[in-house]
Amino acid sequence: AYEQLSGDAMVVYSDNNADVRYRTWNGTAWSSESTLTAASGAGGKVRWSTLVSAPGSDRMALGITTFDSEIWVAVWNGSTWESKQLLGTASTNLAPVVAVAFENDSGTLLTTYSESATQVRYRTWTSGGGWTAEQTGPELGDVPNSMTLSSDPEGNHIMLAVQDNGSDIHLVEWDG
């Protein structure tokens, strides 16, 4: 993902442990490898990651699922990782069941995830307020096995797309 102000790129990856490795690209050279330690309470090896940029800033959000059924997220403020949050430890689905996206106008981060239930769970994050408590989102016909969030570049709407274990596709709009 690219920071929107600096234009620097970031890649995240794992080397078969609980921590996330990352490097940045400034257009000329790669930085040395750095480490983001897992959120408190998470210790499973990283299985899936998703990284998105916030519009109009150098902020990014990272979502992680692990081989130990954990889901956690972290926010990059342009120079360091902050606001790590363990979202759940009961996901029996080892698929990409965490998604992150920023609202275009407000900069609020929306995080959706599944803990092996037929309902999507979510939290929001703001730079001044931190993480909200877990909320229950839309009821699906089956357990999600993948999800994505796509931000509307013209406002605060975000589209959630979920495929469930029954191979059904669900689309739900977040209106901010």
How would you characterize the overall build of this protein?
The protein is an all-beta fold. Helices cover 0% and strands 51% of the residues. The protein contains no helices and 15 strands. The strands form four sheets. Strands 8, 9, 10, 11 and 12 form a five-stranded antiparallel sheet that branches. The protein has a four-stranded antiparallel sheet with strand order 4-5-6-7, with no helix packed on it. It is globular and about 50 Å long. The relative contact order is 0.14. The model has no long low-confidence stretch (mean pLDDT 93).
Brief synopsis:
By secondary structure, the protein is mostly beta strands.
Q: Layout of SSEs?
A:
Blueprint: E1 9-13, E2 20-25, E3 34-36, E4 46-53, E5 60-66, E6 71-76, E7 81-88, E8 98-102, E9 109-113, E10 119-126, E11 130-131, E12 135-139, E13 144-151, E14 158-164, E15 169-174
Antiparallel strand pairs: 1-2, 2-3, 4-5, 5-6, 6-7, 8-9, 9-10, 10-11, 10-12, 13-14, 14-15
User: Please, what is the average pLDDT?
Assistant: 93
- Percent range for helical residues? under 10%
How large a portion of the residues is in β-strands, by DSSP E?
A: over 45%
Computed over alpha carbons, the radius of gyration is: 16 Å
User: How many helical stretches?
Assistant: 0
Oligomer: single chain
Distance between the termini: 23 Å
Strand tally, please? 15
Principal-axes geometry comes out as globular
* H and E string: EEEEEEEEEEEEEEE
Outline the biggest β-sheet. Answer: 5 strands, antiparallel
Taking pLDDT < 50 over at least 5 consecutive residues as the criterion, the unreliable ranges are none
Backbone structural class: mainly beta
